[in-house]
Every structure is written in structure tokens, then in C-alpha cells.
Design a protein that fits this description.
Elements lengths: L2 E3 L5 H4 L2 E3 L14 E3 L24 E3 L12 E7 L8 E6 L4 E5 L9 E2 L12 E3 L8 E3 L1 E2 L6 E3 L7 E7 L2 E5 L5 E5 L3 E4 L15 H6 L54 E3 L4
Antiparallel strand pairs: 1-2, 3-4, 5-6, 5-8, 6-7, 9-16, 10-13, 10-16, 11-12, 13-14, 14-15, 15-17
């Protein structure tokens, strides 16, 4: 999966760097795994705008992704690699031996025709999902569950990966993409390999219009507003605006927002790097 830098034939093309679609093998999604997706445009049930800077954008269909991978012991063949507008990674369509179909997040190195499997008997190979108690120490993993059977919650974004560093009793010790080291129950499942489309981080939209296609409207800064509209507004000339804070007056930089008695703090061994 590479990237394409276009020739500057127009101002919008000059800085545009987009992902190549060479690995994508199907242009239309599997109909049985697609549902409609409603866009609110930032309005509530009375039509009042409650979220600013949202609206417009291209119509999207939601692809149902199998984050649980609970069809243990049944091999599945990768039928196609597809684009998903709802996430940064690519998705892979699986055909199971018993006739079922499902989408999974496509890891790096997964190709059409490969066979994947889930369950404690599965081999620790790319695309296979198994409990962390069965995964060798030092393995690169993604799609990690926080509770057994809950479905993958961690490490799902393009190019992301975590590493299983050790095990302590019932817990697996994981080094997260953020640099955080934490415990997760070893009975939780994880998928082998790193998430594909790692070049997503190198993409540049090139023009404001691409943000509009994604449903993002122009976002104006607090310092350019008047004092009645924002705590950082007002002042003669180009005033800096004082300490960065939100529209409601809460500090935006440097203030710890994590609850001091949060239940999950005891599972974090080393906090993420600042």
C-alpha cells in the first residue's frame, strides 16, 4: 500500500498526497453486511444545532465489522480487500467454511486467498485471532479486547500495533501504540499482526473541499472571536488570547482530565509518553 503525490496541475492538486488503492480488489461492498448510516448534521431532535462545525459530506454506508471473531475453529478465506469510509484502515471480506460471511479489519500482509482462523487452537499467524494466553511473548498484535467476549476495543486504527511483552498470572502485559504499558486479562482475544494501510499518516488532503466531503465545516478559532463569544476572544490587534481554554472556560492545555480514582488506573503500569 503506497501513496500517490500528484503533479501540481491545479492549486488543490499541489499539496495533495493520497493513499494508493492498488491493494483494493472490490469496488462494491457485500450487501448483506451493509446498513444505512444517518447523518445528523450536528442537529438534535428539534432541529437545533448542538454541535458546531458538522454537516454536509458524502453519503456513507456502514459496513458491519466482526470485532468479536467468535467463530472458533472454522477456517475462513479472504475474498477481497475493500475500502471503508468509516475508518482509516482497509477491511477484508471473509468467507467461512460453513457459508457465513463477515468483514474484519485488514492487517498488514493479508492478501486475497489467505486463510485465517480464530480460537485457542489457531496458529499465531497474521490475521488469526486467539486468546493472549496462547500468543507467544513479543508478538505484534492489534484488535485487542478489554473484557473477554466483549469484542476488540484497542489498536484498530491504520498502521497501529501493540506488543505483548509478558504475562503475570491471569494478566497479559501490553505495550500500547501511545507508549503506555498496561495489563489486560490474558483470556481476552487479540489479532496477530499490525493494522494495514500504514501510509495513511502520510496523506495530505491538499484542499479545504476534501474536509467538506468528510462532513467537516470550517472551524473558527477562539482568539478571532469577541469576548462575548469566547474566553480567549477580544483585544486590540492580534491578541494572543491568554491561557488556552474552551468556550466554557475550562483549561485546554496542561490540565489533567483523567479521574483520579478511575477504576482502570490500577491496570496501567506506565502512563503514556507526554
Amino acid at each position: 500500500m503506497g501513496i500517490r503525490k500528484l503533479k501540481p496541475t491545479t492549486p488543490g492538486q499541489r499539496h495533495k498526497v493520497i493513499g494508493a488503492f492498488d491493494k483494493i480488489t472490490a469496488s462494491t461492498p457485500e450487501k448483506s453486511l451493509v446498513v444505512g448510516k444517518k447523518s445528523s448534521g450536528g442537529r438534535n431532535n428539534t432541529g437545533k444545532m448542538t454541535m458546531r462545525y458538522l454537516g454536509g459530506g458524502h453519503k456513507q454506508k456502514y459496513r458491519l465489522i466482526d470485532f468479536k471473531r467468535n467463530k472458533d475453529g472454522i477456517p475462513a478465506t479472504v475474498k477481497s480487500i475493500e475500502y471503508d469510509p468509516n475508518r482509516t484502515s482497509r477491511i477484508a471480506l471473509l468467507y467461512y467454511a460453513d457459508g457465513a460471511k463477515s468483514y474484519i479489519i485488514a492487517p498488514n500482509g493479508l492478501e486475497v486467498g489467505h486463510t485465517v482462523m480464530s480460537g485457542s487452537e489457531a496458529a499465531p499467524e497474521v490475521g488469526n485471532t486467539l486468546p493472549m494466553e496462547n500468543i507467544p511473548i513479543g508478538t505484534i498484535i492489534h484488535n485487542i479486547e478489554l473484557r473477554p467476549g466483549q469484542g476488540a476495543k484497542l489498536v484498530r486504527s491504520a498502521g497501529a500495533f501493540a506488543q505483548l511483552t509478558s504475562r503475570e498470572g491471569n494478566y497479559a502485559i501490553i505495550k500500547m501504540p501511545s507508549g503506555e504499558t498496561r495489563k489486560v486479562l490474558a483470556a481476552c482475544k487479540a489479532t496477530i499482526g499490525s493494522v494495514g494501510n500504514s501510509d495513511h499518516a502520510l496523506e495530505k488532503s491538499g484542499k479545504a473541499g476534501r474536509s467538506r466531503w468528510l462532513g467537516r465545516r470550517p472551524h473558527n478559532r477562539g482568539v478571532v472571536m469577541n469576548p462575548v463569544d469566547h474566553p480567549m476572544g477580544g483585544g486590540e490587534g492580534r491578541a494572543s488570547g491568554g491561557h488556552p481554554r474552551s468556550r466554557t472556560g475550562l483549561y485546554a492545555k496542561g490540565l489533567k482530565t483523567r479521574a483520579p480514582k478511575k477504576h482502570s488506573s490500577k491496570y496501567i503500569i506506565e502512563r503514556r509518553k507526554k
